[in-house]
# Entry
Amino acid sequence: MANIKSAKKRIQTAERNRLQNKSYKSAVRTLMKKYFAAVNDYAANPTSEKEQQVEQAMSAAYSKIDKAVKVNALHRNNGARKKARLAKALKNVMPA
# Structure
């Protein structure tokens, strides 16, 4: 255990940041899963209503990924890769 005051503060700061990063990463994973579920649902039965759900899910996932990158919970390349995966999933099921 740390004895120096600044070391104790760093431990507290690191723990706080770890929990915040964990929250962002978890939210990103959850939104990505919801998006992929919406895409699969749309692929099975394409309707304009389901397409809107896909667009909303994509928007929410993109937003959360961008925020996670902004606060350094994710590396920018990791965020870009996740967004590319989302776009690719939709591209593969959309009619040309």
Observations:
- The chain has a mean pLDDT of 95.
